[in-house]
Amino acid sequence: MTASSRDALVDLSRQLGAPSQDAAILGEGNTSVRVQNVMLVKASGATLATAEPDDFVRLELPAALALIDDPRAGDDEVDALFSQVAALEGRRPSVEALLHVVIYAATDARVIAHSHPTNVTAILCSQSAEKLVDGALFPDQIVVLGAHPLLVPYVDPGIALARHVRTQLAEHIARWGQAPRVIYLRNHGMFALGLTAAEVLGMTAMAQKSARVIIAASCAGGVVFMPPEEVARINSRPDEKYRRGLLSLDRRDSTSQHRPRIEEER
C-alpha cells in the first residue's frame, strides 16, 4: 500500500465528509481502498472531513475473511482481530470494516465509500425505502447508480451485518448477473462501490439527488418510475457504458501529474 494510495484515500474522505456533501458528520461514514490482498480502511472514531494519513489502518483481507467464514466467530473474535491490527497500526479499524471486506471479496470494487446522506437516510428510515431500488427515475440515475441497487434490512453493524450482506450480494449477483453499484442499508446509510475515488463520490452525490427527487415526487402526486424496458436499454447502451467510464475519471488528474491517486490492483 503506497503513500499515494493513502493520500488519495485521505482526499476522498475529506471530500465525502465536507459539509457541502451533507453525507456525514462527526465520526459517521468510512472509506477504504483495496490493493491486492490488503485493505486500507478508516480507523474507528476518525472523522472523514478532517481525515489525516494516520486515520487509516491496514487490514489483511484473507485473515478477515477467515474470521467471517468461521461460524463460531462472534464479537469476541472480531475484537481480538481488531486488537491485533491496533497493535501493529496504532488504531482499530471501523466497526464496519468487515462489510468492506465481504464487498471486496464478492465484487471488482477497488474503492468503497460508506456515508449517511441526509435525504437518502430519510427514505431509508421511512416506509418507502423500496423506492430507492424498485425502479429508476431518470437516465443519469441509471448511468451512475446502475439499474439494480441492493437494499438490505437493518442488521446490527459488525460480523452479523457482513455475513448478511455477503448472502444478499450472492443472491443479487445470481439474479442480475452483476454486482450492484450501490448498497442501501435500512435505517443506516449507503455504500458506493467503484474503481476510483471520483466514481464513488459521484455515486454518492447522485444517490442524494435521487433521494431528493423521490421526496419531491412523493409530495407532487407520487413517484413514477421509467418503464423497465427503457431502464434496461439505458443500462446496456454502449454510449452510456462509455459515459459511465468517463464519469469514473478525476478530471483534476489531467491538470496535475503529481496529484495522489489510488493505485490499481496488480
TrEMBL record:
Region span, Disordered: 245-266
Top-level division of the source organism's lineage: Bacteria
Keyword terms: Lyase, Metal-binding
Molecular function, one GO term: metal ion binding
Keyword check for Lyase: yes
An individual GO BP term: pentose catabolic process
Record-linked Gene3D superfamilies: Class II aldolase/adducin N-terminal domain (3.40.225.10)
GO CC terms, sorted: cytosol
Name under which the protein is recorded: Uncharacterized conserved protein
Biological source species: Microcella alkaliphila
